[in-house]
Amino acid sequence: MSPTTPRTPSASGTSAGSLAGSPARDRGRGVRGGLAWGNMLQAGIWLIFLAYPANLILREDLTGGERLLAVATLVLFALAYLLGFGRIPLTVDEGAERAAWRMLVAWWALLIGCGLVLAAVLGGQALAGLTPYYVATVMFTTTPRLGLPLSAVIVLGATGAAALSAGPQGVLYLSGALYIGSGMVIVSSLMEHRERGRRRTAEALQAAREREQVARDVHDLLGHSLTVINLKAEVASRLLASDPEAARAELEQISRTSRTALAEVRSTVTRLRQPDFAGQIRAAARALETAGVRAELPDPQAAQDAAGADATVFSWALRESVTNVVRHARAGTCRVTVTRGLLEVADDGVGWSGRCGDGLQGLSRRIAEAAGGRLEILAAEPETGTVVRVHTTSRAAASADRPAGRTTGRESR
Fold this sequence. Notes:
Elements: H1 37-45, H2 51-56, H3 64-87, H4 98-122, H5 126-139, H6 144-173, H7 175-242, H8 244-269, H9 277-290, E1 294-298, H10 300-307, H11 311-329, E2 333-339, E3 342-347, H12 358-371, E4 374-379, E5 386-391, E6 406-408
Parallel strand pairs: 1-2
Antiparallel strand pairs: 1-6, 2-3, 3-5, 4-5
Helix pairs in contact: 1-3, 3-4, 4-5, 5-6, 5-7, 6-7, 7-8, 8-9, 8-11, 9-10, 9-11, 11-12
């Protein structure tokens, strides 16, 4: 539950929403990183619900010294709460650094100390107003396996303190903070943990698929290319003395094969990154140039602007298409055209065999899932070469758009 979403306060004045700041905290920031000011600001919105313990400070039976001590302690609690959520990374678990655990325990100790001081000055019922904050500190900074039992201990302890101080009727009055507010914090944190787990699983599966694809590609590329180079090198060495011209021809083929292999490896390695479309245009120019293919490519920035929201999908498609041109097409020229909702990659090579490998099948699925589009492959005119087209839903809204201007060869870099 995002803290930026308004929620109805409970009877005691404690929010039923998340008190921990944004769940989308920077998970890459460690204990040595800077403060997450945005998270602190979002967490600070909910400090308004410290109004209940603040209201207890206005009681007439407090001395001036007690009132001053309570005010200072409540301010210290609020500052510590904000700084903790701005400094301690999510989630501190068994694999976290010792420094993270030391910081987390020190933070808890400081907040508990503040609560005990307020309870001593204002009575046990003061802890009820702080209970959802304590629950947030354990639920949003640890795993549910640790956070849930700690939250139960916190709620039961605060209930006992409130009962001793204000009696059963006081506990009933404070139930909004003790149970409703704390319960909503727990539900919100569990939803966030579940979403983070889903994202981690999706990222792990995607990384595994990428590794598997790259492993297959590198095996296919280098296995074949290195075998050919090795064989031709042996032939050239045998012919060097008896037929220098034939040996020179073999060496030239070795050079061409190595350039092609280099271009294929470059195209494969780019799959490990997610560049913008302009960067992918430049990468395509380098791969084609290395393979000795004349490139007719759009200006990178013009292509990026024409792609618009489809830039990521077009990047995937351009990678796969250029890799296939370099690897299979034996083309002399490759032309790329970009308009809104349409990417076209055409070559003048040997033509498409009609079979879709894993790369094209995966690309077709990604285009459909990410952009609601489709992949089209057809023979170029006049029956030579291949044209690959990617259509997305943006196409219908831009039928009058002009293609991004093309440049040739090195001008596209």
